[in-house]
Design goal:
Layout: H1 2-15, E1 19-21, E2 27-28, E3 33-40, E4 50-56, E5 65-67, E6 73-74, E7 98-102, H2 108-115, E8 120-121, E9 138-140
Parallel strand pairs: 7-8
Antiparallel strand pairs: 1-2, 1-5, 3-4, 4-5, 4-6, 7-9
């Protein structure tokens, strides 16, 4: 275990500040194909907290290159999330502090919205009761009502 940690630390020190591709293992300092953009960390279900630089690899042309040693940037509170706005007044308490409930496998943007309190993750499996009524797609942050 210590050998693996030492090897990873050596790679990080050697390649710090260079671009590396997850797909084809390309390493370089030249500008990437396309433009550098900020994306959310691929966290497999965990809540993202930072934005990371990801770009197109000049070798394999896949969107899989990252900047080695990049600590990422904290997600600002005013990060634009156009699809995650108020869902109208709550039918139970009338509060305007309502958010969408994201059903199905969440995208990185949906995970970011959930981590910022602008959406609620509702699970991957969407079930209906015997009357054919499905789950709610809106939620009130004030009283917890889902509709």
């Amino acid at each position: 275990m210590k050998e693996l940690e030492a090897e990873l630390a050596g790679e990080l020190e050697r390649d710090h500040g260079k671009w590396r591709c997850h797909s084809c293992s390309w390493i370089g300092t030249s500008p990437l194909y396309g433009s550098e953009i900020l994306e959310l960390e691929d966290v497999r279900g965990f809540t993202p907290r930072r934005l990371y630089r990801v770009g197109d690899c000049p070798e394999c042309r896949k969107h899989a290159a990252y900047l080695v040693g990049d600590p990422g940037k904290p997600i600002p509170d005013d990060f634009p999330l156009e699809d995650f706005k108020s869902q109208g007044p709550c039918p139970k308490c009338g509060s305007e502090d309502t958010i969408p409930i994201i059903r199905g496998y969440p995208t990185n943007t949906a995970m970011l919205a959930a981590s910022m309190g602008r959406a609620k993750l509702g699970g991957c499996i969407i079930m209906h009761d015997e009357d054919g009524n499905g789950p709610g797609y809106r939620c009130c942050k004030a009283c917890g009502c889902e509709w």
